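job 3f2a | input accepted
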Amino acid sequence: MSNPSPNLENLKKGKDTQFTSGDTAVIQGKKGGIKSGEVRRERKELSKMIELALKGKIPDHLLKSVEKRYGKEKAKTLTMFEAIVGRQIERALIKADTITFRELMDRVEGKPVSENDIRFPDGLPAQSLKIEFNEKEVEEVLNKLLKKVNQ
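job 3f2a | predicted structure (151 res):
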């Protein structure tokens, strides 16, 4: 008949089955650190490439689309970044795209604090606190953004 608990035999072997977390952790940690550095350098390089592309002029194959919105002369002077921001503002204004508007406002005004993060002096969460914009305020902010893009 076989031993009812094969694990007891492993315990009797001692050093052969002893867990060596220190050695393993050091090796795995080193591998993770090296990989992390590689990924970080790749992301930095990608961010730099995107930044350069956004600062650059609009490529010829996209220029016609931008010319329709801003005219030939204005389109030639815009950077990719300016054209993208202008299009996002138009989308928020013309299509009443709330998500796009919220993203634009977060960039201009800073990301709002979550209701869950706000607390009254007695420590209770301010779940009932609501912030509302009236139509005139929204229109003023969008007009300011459009002016900046069209300058």
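job 3f2a | The radius of gyration is 29 Å.
job 3f2a | closed
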